[in-house]
């Protein structure tokens, strides 16, 4: 019995989940951890004279970050080519360009890969390494009907990721997401063969991120942390007969909760400083740690309604993912979902720094929404709602609600509160204007 079929099985066949599982790349964190990149590669079995590829973008090359990485690698005896053509919000064709670059460099690809950048660069590095190892092109491995839905069977040469933003969590996730230009949608390759072997998180790479980007990526990270904390308990879901059928988003566990709690504290407590004083390395380090912990929690337990609603918005209006999460969170994650368990949202309020003394759980959840919106305003670079973000009006809401419910079943299945198209429409309406 597969997991999907077990959901619709008759009640006497249903068995509650009793196991949680976490899979992560090897992690190295801290100031100067880039100096251990060579050691990390050797630890993954890469020989000292190996020839590798650094996948990054032009801005990071201009800022000298790419040079820092190649210098360290060359000091350790490796030789490195640099591919610095990753665009923001990459499309399938951009990954195919990188794959072509690798294939032209020689049969079988490189001995190792390093991805340096935000989610875009890291996703290109992840997909390139996987497709080179498995053959064919990106669309072969994207789910049907958009792609061919072929299964990846090989991981390929070792891949290490160095994030330069504190947000997406791509450094630990088994997913790489790209725009499919012909269909005007975003689709992902999702497989443990896409996940990096190791991540090196050095906060000194994050201080050059401009305030706007810092704010956007932080709101995505905060979304992962809060959504992961407020999704279903793993043992309230159903147990798959075959462990291989356990979904990637498997509900919150004691493991993920611990990371969510620390992530909410770190991100909400440091984002103002990181945005307004980007050189503050303590704040940057706390943000990078918060984003990592948020990703460990949210990308294991699972994101909820807010991320589900963000995909149709991103597909139609090509909005930035973090900004989309920022404008949708008050109405979806907090307002709508808190009715499922106000006590849990009162806990989030406390982690967020709200003094909840003497408040009912409901009042604490409301105070969380108020403080979250206040935080966005304080950052000074985020839009006031969906209308300012993308010009969305009442007329667009039916389509957005319909798309969310019809295309985001995977995320909505584990939302803590059931949703109908009408519910989602109302949440979108609430998100048009978070403040005047
Ligand atoms: Fe996200």
Give descriptors for this structure.
single chain; 436 residues; 18 helices; two-stranded antiparallel sheet; 6-stranded parallel β-sheet; alpha/beta; 48% helix; 9% strand; Rossmann fold; disordered N terminus; binds fe (ii) ion; Dehydroquinate synthase-like, alpha domain
In words, what does this structure look like?
The chain has two domains: 32-201, 3-Layer(aba) Sandwich (Rossmann fold), CATH 3.40.50.1970; 211-430, Dehydroquinate synthase-like - alpha domain (Dehydroquinate synthase-like, alpha domain), CATH 1.20.1090. It is globular and about 65 Å long. By secondary structure, it is α/β, with parallel strands linked by helices. A six-stranded parallel beta sheet has the order 1-8-5-4-2-3, with helices on both faces. Strands 6-7 form a two-stranded antiparallel ribbon. It contains 18 helices and eight strands. It is 48% helix and 9% strand. Strand 4 (112-117), helix 6 and strand 5 (159-163) form a beta-alpha-beta unit. Residues 220, 223-224, 307, 321, 325 line the site of fe (ii) ion. Fe (ii) ion binds next to helix 7 and helix 11. Residues 253-431 form the Fe-containing alcohol dehydrogenase-like C-terminal domain. It is an enzyme of class 1 (oxidoreductase).
């Amino acid at each position: 019995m597969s997991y999907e079929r077990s959901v619709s099985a008759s009640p006497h066949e249903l068995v509650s989940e009793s196991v949680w599982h976490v899979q992560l790349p090897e992690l190295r964190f801290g100031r100067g951890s880039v100096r251990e990149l060579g050691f990390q590669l050797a630890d993954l079995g890469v020989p000292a004279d190996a020839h590798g590829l650094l996948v990054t973008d032009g801005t990071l090359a201009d800022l000298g970050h790419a040079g820092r990485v190649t210098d360290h690698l060359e000091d350790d005896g490796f030789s490195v080519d640099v591919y610095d053509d990753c665009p923001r919000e990459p499309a399938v064709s951009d990954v195919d360009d990188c794959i072509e670059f690798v294939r032209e460099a020689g049969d079988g690809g490189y001995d190792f890969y390093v991805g340096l950048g935000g989610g875009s660069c890291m996703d290109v590095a992840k997909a390139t390494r996987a497709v080179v190892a498995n053959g064919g092109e990106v669309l072969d491995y994207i789910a049907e009907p958009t792609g061919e839905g072929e299964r990846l069977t090989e991981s390929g040469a070792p891949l290490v990721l160095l994030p330069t933003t504190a947000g997406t969590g791509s450094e630990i996730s088994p997913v790489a997401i790209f725009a499919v230009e012909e269909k005007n949608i975003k689709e992902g390759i999702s497989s443990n063969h896409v996940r990096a072997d190791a991540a090196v998180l050095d906060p000194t790479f994050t201080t050059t991120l401009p305030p706007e980007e810092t704010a956007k990526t932080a709101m995505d990270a905060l979304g992962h942390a809060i959504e992961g904390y407020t999704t279903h308990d793993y043992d309230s879901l159903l147990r798959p007969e075959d462990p291989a059928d356990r979904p990637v988003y498997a509900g919150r566990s004691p493991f993920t909760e611990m990371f969510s709690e620390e992530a909410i504290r770190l991100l909400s407590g440091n984002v103002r400083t990181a945005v307004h004083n980007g050189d503050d390395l303590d704040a940057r380090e706390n943000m990078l740690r918060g984003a990592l912990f948020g990703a460990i929690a949210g990308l294991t337990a699972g994101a909820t309604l807010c991320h589900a609603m963000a995909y149709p918005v991103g597909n139609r209006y090509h909005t930035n993912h973090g900004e989309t999460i920022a404008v949708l969170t008050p109405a979806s994650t907090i307002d709508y979902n808190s009715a499922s368990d106000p006590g849990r949202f009162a806990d989030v309020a406390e982690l967020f720094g709200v003094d909840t003394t003497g408040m009912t759980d409901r009042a604490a959840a409301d105070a969380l929404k108020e403080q979250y919106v206040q935080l966005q305003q304080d950052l000074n670079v985020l839009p006031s709602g969906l209308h300012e973000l993308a010009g969305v009006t009442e007329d667009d809401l039916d389509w957005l609600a319909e798309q969310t419910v019809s295309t985001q079943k995977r995320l909505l299945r584990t939302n803590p509160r059931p949703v109908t198209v009408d519910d989602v429409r109302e949440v979108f309406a609430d998100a048009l204007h978070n403040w005047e």
